[in-house]
């Protein structure tokens, strides 16, 4: 089960539910291009609300069976939607268990929110993995032109003993292959498959 996690004073990671669709749409509309970078599978020319609704439905249902873990970042003071992050199942390597994705809406960027929230969910996943006496491999894939996303992924790799794959990998997005930079984290830290 995906828990609620406080990660800085006044900000909470709240498990994703279908009911946040209006908040997600408002954040999307603030900067559709930036949101498109975070959700490359989203087809902006076709019913964005329906696609986001389907994503939320899938994430909520899979969270109940402990397969996906997604949170929305809430400002406790305003109840505002700040962004999304989570562990998904769009994987590039056979040995991986999750991919880690994160998106902070434009009006809240450059405040360290993505890195702090990501650190919090990684600590939670590491504790969960240790409790279950297990091993988890996490992928972070970032488009090479997404400088903010790359900076966050590189910092996560540094702090979590991750590995940056030098060769770009192709990811199928909307009928075409798009090169991405891949980062790999193993939990608990220091473990290798």
Provide a short characterization of the protein structure.
The chain has five helices and eight strands; from the N terminus they run E-E-H-H-H-E-E-E-H-E-H-E-E. The protein is of the alpha+beta class and 193 residues long.
Provide structural commentary.
- The protein has 193 residues and is of the alpha+beta class.
- The protein has 5 helices and 8 strands; from the N terminus they run E-E-H-H-H-E-E-E-H-E-H-E-E.
- The chain has an 8-stranded mixed beta sheet with strand order 1-2-3-4-5-6-8-7, with helices on both faces.
- Helix 1 packs across helix 2.
- The longest helix has 19 residues.
- The protein is globular.
- The chain starts with a strand and ends in a 6-residue tail after the last strand.
Main attributes?
single chain, 193 residues, alpha+beta, eight-stranded mixed β-sheet, 5 helices, 8 strands, globular
Radius of gyration: 16 Å
Largest sheet: 8 strands, mixed
The count of strands amounts to 8
Strand line-up across the major sheet: 1-2-3-4-5-6-8-7
**Residues in β-strands, percent:** 25-35%
Series of secondary-structure elements, N-terminal to C-terminal = EEHHHEEEHEHEE
Oligomer: single chain
Q: What is the count of DSSP helices, taking H or I runs of 4+ residues?
A: 5
Poorly predicted runs are none
Secondary-structure-derived class: alpha+beta
Overall mean pLDDT score? 87
Task: Summarize the amount of helix as a percent range.
Answer: 25-40%
The rounded distance between the terminal residues' Cα atoms is 25 Å
Q: Rough shape?
A: globular
């Amino acid at each position: 089960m995906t828990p609620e996690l406080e990660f800085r004073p006044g900000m909470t990671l709240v498990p994703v539910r279908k009911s946040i669709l209006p908040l997600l749409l408002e954040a999307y509309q603030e900067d559709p291009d930036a949101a498109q970078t975070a959700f490359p599978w989203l087809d902006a020319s076709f019913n964005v609300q329906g696609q986001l609704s389907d994503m939320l439905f899938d994430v909520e249902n899979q969270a109940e069976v402990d397969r996906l873990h997604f949170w929305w970042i809430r400002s406790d003071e305003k109840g505002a939607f700040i962004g999304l992050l989570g562990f998904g199942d769009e994987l590039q390597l056979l040995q991986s268990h999750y991919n880690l994705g994160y998106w902070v809406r434009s009006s809240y960027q450059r405040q360290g929110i993505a890195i702090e929230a990501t650190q919090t969910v990684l600590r939670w996943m590491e504790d969960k993995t240790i409790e279950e006496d297990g091993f988890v491999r996490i992928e972070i894939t970032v488009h090479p032109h997404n400088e903010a996303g790359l900076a966050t992924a590189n910092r996560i790799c540094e702090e979590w003993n991750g590995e940056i794959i030098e060769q770009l990998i192709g990811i199928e997005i909307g009928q075409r292959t798009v090169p991405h930079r891949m980062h790999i984290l193993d939990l608990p830290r220091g473990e290798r498959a």
